[in-house]
Amino acid sequence: MTATKGLEGIVATTSSISSIIDGVLTYRGIDIDDLAEHASFEEVVYLLWYGKLPNKSELEQLHADLSASAPVADSVIQQLKLYPKNTNSMAALRSAVSALALYDEEANDMSPAANLRKAIRLQAQLPTIVAAFARIREGKEPIAPKAGVSVSYNFLYMLTGNDPEPIAVEALDKALVLHADHELNASTFAARVTVATLSDIYSGVTSAIGALKGPLHGGANEAVMAMLEEIGTSSDVEAYINNKLANKEKIMGFGHRVYKNGDPRAKHLQKMSRELGKITNNMNWYDMSIKIEELVTGQKGLKPNVDFYSASVYTSLEIPRDLFTPIFAISRVSGWTAHILEQYENNRLIRPRAEYTGPVNQKYVPIESR
Ligand SMILES: CC(=O)SCCNC(=O)CCNC(=O)[C@H](O)C(C)(C)COP(=O)(O)OP(=O)(O)OC[C@H]1O[C@@H](n2cnc3c(N)ncnc32)[C@H](O)[C@@H]1OP(=O)(O)O
Ligand SMILES: O=C([O-])CC(=O)C(=O)O
Description:
mainly alpha; Citrate Synthase, domain 1; CATH 1.10.230.10; binds acetyl coenzyme *A; binds oxaloacetate ion; Citrate synthase
């Protein structure tokens, strides 16, 4: 038995949800470029869950269901108020999502219909939790979700209490479309491993949030912004990046386990970053990002991944840096739940093997002889 480090190249499941073939990302067979251009986030959520684009009435029903499910149990909001004010935002989200299960009477109902209802509640309630957490830690009251608006609109509204600008809603919506699913990435795999024991959907999503939090995965978008802030201006980019590369340090937001010729989502986010920079009259983050890309791609051949330009996009939308990864979760919960439902449909326990590298032929030594 020989281990493959990081399971690179191992095909661990079949799935009909999303694919990356020859560098092309599709959701249910539709190219991400097509979806980024034309689809709303809710259409993508429907596509991931049901395997087809919704017609008008199906989409209206999904909007209505998400709207009706967006309010979060008051007990969970009260718990958020008890978290230390400096709690890591992904730790808060992980804990609150785990707590949602305690107040859901269907939490352990494993029927497909109940699991779909829980997927809707999870999709609807993650934005409410993230926005409530962001306000509570600033000493403000959470804002109740608004009925009849999109997930993107509602999230921005609940964050600030103001009706967001259409351009901001459009930008966030496109970012959510781009982040919704990604084959067997680490957090989706974590979700599938958890529910393959026939554990519940809340346990699966809680595992996934824990996996997304790390800086090698979803946490990279916050690390990118921390880097941009640390560098400060375009004129300091070259020295900073050269020094990092000389020290063999990783540049966050670059590289990918699967894409070696570039992440197809990055160009959409780069374009959004430029457009939002122009609109907000602050091209600094975009200009720095372009310079970093030139240096890292030029010297290492590494291309930006989805996390790189999303950092400057969210900053232009005036979203605090430590909400970037929770926003990733707000989008990716659509993919996680689609994969969880698919796992339940055709389940088998996921239990690989380890190549043992420890000592052999050891004997128990009585404690007085050690
Ligand atoms: C949504 C997402 O999860 S997208 C990924 C987000 N993560 C990041 O942006 C973090 C930075 N990137 C990375 O750490 C990696 O590229 C990963 C984790 C994304 C992929 O990792 P792996 O497939 O395991 O590649 P691995 O880390 O082994 O890198 C291969 C080589 O490229 C180098 N490399 C990979 N990424 C980077 C980077 N961002 N900066 C500098 N060097 C890098 C590694 O140091 C390694 O070099 P070596 O062979 O000389 O040791
Ligand atoms: O697929 C991966 O390994 C990481 C990624 O880009 C994602 O989850 O969107």
